[in-house]
Design goal:
By secondary structure, this protein is α/β, with parallel strands linked by helices. The protein is 39% helix and 16% strand. It has twelve helices and 13 strands. The chain is globular, with a radius of gyration of 20 Å.
Length: 316
């Protein structure tokens, strides 16, 4: 059984981690008393974490996981390692696949006690999407170099400042009609703080969770169309939702400067729910919170008259 103070004073090196999910994992680690080194190509993006850390608790380092020597430099002294590198742009196999292998090898050479690698639900070596293939390759690379690493595959994450639900909320609040891509695709969205707690739980108890793959998701599956309707209801709005056929959606995703890329479309169409073949949040001691718990409060700023509009609260 893991000790409550297992992370206290330990040096955790987090590769990547300057984005939406990484900032939540960082906060959770700092709250547990860990010393944290955020290593990424753009560590300045994580400077917002500074007020959350005690003196000497937080470090930043520039690191390119595609370069083994760069990773080895930031891994010096690491007790624990979390790899969160992810992107939809560039050479994904080089960045996420072989890059993850570089992190795992450096973690092994540094003598790290445990490692958590963040992958994604939908990771599949046979997928049409390069992102899914790269995530599958990353898991293989990590386990080859660090067999006792924990693999965390989160579903689509939501939070008050995420890019996906806030994008939808903005469009729903301003447009009278809105296309819905992959309207029947199932989603099992997960609150980002629950996902961060899952990473910390796996890292805290390597004896129990090491070497295992976890698929973590929210408590209920909904469709993409249902998500649009819930956001609209929370805003007190009734736009027209146009269910787009797959052909039109795929053409849109292939166009430049659109908010959805080809890989994102492929993975969205496939759905984003756990397979049921792997342990889940329950095995990490976490009960996920539903989207409905947060949506009304988060949608206040998108309502007509903002928080002074009570119609949305009573209309559903």
């Amino acid at each position: 059984m893991a000790k409550p103070d297992f992370l206290n004073g330990k040096l955790v090196v987090m590769t990547g981690g300057s984005g939406f999910f990484g900032s939540r994992v960082a906060q959770a680690l700092l709250e547990k008393g860990a010393r944290l080194r955020v290593a990424s190509r753009h560590p300045e993006k994580a400077f917002t974490l500074k007020p959350l850390a005690n003196l000497g608790q937080l470090q930043f380092a520039r690191c390119d996981v595609r370069k083994p020597e760069s990773v080895a430099a930031v891994m010096q002294g690491a007790d624990l390692v979390v790899n969160m590198v992810g992107s939809f742009d560039g050479d994904l196999m080089e960045l996420m696949g072989r890059g993850a292998g570089n992190v795992a090898r450096a973690a092994t050479e540094a003598g790290a006690e445990a490692m958590v690698h963040v992958s994604a639900i939908g990771a599949d070596a046979e997928s049409e999407a390069e992102y899914a293939r790269a995530k599958a390759a990353s898991e293989s690379e990590v386990l080859s170099a660090f067999p006792k690493a924990s693999i965390i595959r989160p579903s689509m994450l939501f939070g008050e400042d995420d890019q996906f639900t806030t994008m939808l909320a903005g469009m729903i609040s301003t447009l009278p009609a809105l296309p819905v891509f992959a309207p029947e695709s199932p989603l099992q969205m997960l609150w980002v703080d629950d996902a961060a707690d899952a990473v910390v739980a796996a890292l805290t108890n390597p004896a129990k969770h090491g070497g295992k793959t976890f698929e973590i998701a929210g408590p209920e599956p909904i469709t993409m169309l249902d998500l649009h309707r819930r956001i609209a209801a929370a805003q007190g709005r009734s736009p027209l939702f146009i269910e787009m056929p797959d052909l039109a959606s795929s053409i849109f995703a292939a166009m430049p400067l659109t908010p959805m890329g080809h890989d994102q479309w492929i993975m969205l169409k496939a759905g984003n729910v756990p397979s049921g073949d792997y342990p889940a949040l329950k095995q990490l001691g976490i009960e996920p919170k539903p989207l409905a718990l947060f949506l009304d409060r988060w949608m206040e700023r998108y309502r007509k008259y903002g928080r002074f509009n009570n119609e949305a609260k009573t209309s559903h």
